[in-house]
Amino acid sequence: MADIEIARSGAVLELTLNRPAKKNALTNAMYRTLNVALDEAERDAGVGAVLVAGAGDVFSAGNDIGDFVAAAQDGEMAGADFVRKIAAFPKPLVAAVDGLAVGIGCTLLLHCDLVYATPESRFLLPFVDLGLLPEAGASLLLPRRVGMARASAWLLAGESFGADEAFAAGLLNAIPATDSLLTTAREKAAQLAAKPRAALMAARKFLRGDTAEILARIEAELDAFRKALASPEARAALMAFLNKGK
Ligand code: COA
Prior knowledge:
Helix content is 49%, strand content 14%. By secondary structure, it is α/β, with parallel strands linked by helices. Coenzyme A binds next to helix 2 and strand 5.
């Protein structure tokens, strides 16, 4: 079974994070697959929207921690390109979240146009607790989206939050029942994909704000993130996770 499942339903491309044994944590290889799929979706006139979901009862536990430790040595962070790509992606992105959405599993939602999450969903941005920094433009987009109070509680204090709070904060469009999550998200994605394409893409671009500003913040965050990754405090926190139970 591939760690990223790619399926096409009409004009909607579905990307499913499919590494449930590791809580759909994203590896460099998975990001590379996502990046190629997004490039193709951008080029393919038959694709009108992209839907991102997670296999099993988790959306994603974020970046693979082992890959973070390796990145501190070899520098490879395929997630950086993924983040740049979703920030500049020209077609609608829809997310279907069930279960945990941690780290990039949560910040990627800031780049989605419509986000649906089940009542069981839980969100966590543990960057600072790991000795790391917010990424994917979250330091810019999250306070803008949910206000500084919530952004500070979530990004600095590392407080987790549930679907109700995420909905109240404006991060979610709706909280469908668990068994109708995918149907709802698929319907909404198909509706977007069926709209007049040029008008939708242009309207979306205005709504999402200044791409150059977002990309600049992403680069600044990545720069700081790489430095943090090499720090003793990050290494200690990441190794503590990898050594848990040993
Ligand atoms: N990177 C690598 N492996 C991960 C992972 C991650 N981000 N998240 C989970 N896994 C692995 C665990 O190591 C475990 O592997 P094992 O079965 O070989 O031991 C497996 O996935 C199941 O995770 P486990 O921790 O046993 O499940 P849980 O239900 O007790 O906890 C989480 C789930 C997501 C709360 C917990 O795994 C976690 O905190 N993960 C790290 C999240 C994180 O900090 N991500 C980075 C954000 S920047």
